[in-house]
Each structure stands twice: as C-alpha cells, then as structure tokens.
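Here is a tokenized protein:
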Amino acid sequence: MYRFPVPQAARLASFAGVESDLRAVVEYCKRLEAQWRSLGTLDFPLHEALSAAAVIRYGRCFKQGVRQRLLEKHLNAAPSELGHTHRYVIELRDKHVAHSVNPFEENDVTVQISDHYVSSAEVFAVNTAHGRAVGFPSDMPAKLRALGEWWLAWLEVEIKKEKEMLVNLAKTFTLEELKRNGEVLLAADTTPHTVGKRRPRP
C-alpha cells in the first residue's frame, strides 16, 4: 500500500480515526450494559472508567484537532432521542469528565460541631467533603451505543463516497507518481518527546 496524501484525501483519512473512536464507544457501552445486567456485582471503578472512556472517545469525534471533525448538523436526520443523547454526552464531557464545572461534582469544607458544644471555642476539626457522579446512569450505555451505531452507519455511506472519488482521482496519476510518496507505515510514534507535538496531517 502506498500513501496517497492529496488534499482531497484528508476527509477520508479523518474518517479512519473517527470510525475507530466510534467502534470503541460501542464496545465500551456493550460492556457497561453487561455490567448493569449483573447489578449485584457492579464494579464501580470499572464502571466509571468505561463511562469516562466512552465519553472521551465520543467527544473526540466532534472536537477540533488535526483531523476533520464530525458535524452535529448531520444528526438532524437522526431520531430526536439520539440528538438528546448526543447533547448530554458532549455536555458531560465538557463540564464533568474533562473539566470540573457542573453540579455532578461538589467539593466543600465542613466544620465539625457536636450537639453539646456551648461555644465555637470547642471546635477542633475542619474537614473536606467530596461528592461526584460515578459513571453513566443505568439507561445511558444503551442510548450511547445506539447513537454510536447510527454514526457508524452514516460513516459507512460517506466513506464509500470518498473512496469512489479518490479511486477516480488516483487514476489520473501515473504509477510512478503514486509510488513516489512511499509505502504506508502505520506505527504510531509514542516516544515521550512527541506527546506534546502536533502531527502534520490527518
């Protein structure tokens, strides 16, 4: 396989990453649904971790980065319930999972006062109090899975269109021109010095 880094290929290249994220969302939600079916043995740390992972991977598809993002307007063709789920998950991502903003998390300082105290001079302890929503509510994994599956079906159609367009474009080049870009190397560079860098293409 040879690289084909023409500007017209950017959308399809972005779709490859988006599709990977959405498939992960669907898989995480299936595992969350299985967890809720066995409520008596619900693993709360795992439940929170899978919920956060699903929110993050879904949100990546709609946030601006190197790759092109999905546009929310395409959801106008989806059932309204999916639109509600989308907005909930994006708000959950922006105001709870990624940033501490909404009331899903509360942090307070408390002063300990016993009933027998006659004055504040007897106060001897100040503590912290923390409360937070832990993972999805029970109905959300199924809703987000349905949303992810809707997007994957939409992507399937769009990817087919992009591939057809690019096949026709590739035919306008000679074989020598197509080979000039080199073969594809799909090994991600995860060395420590690259973690803060921006890659040059989708």
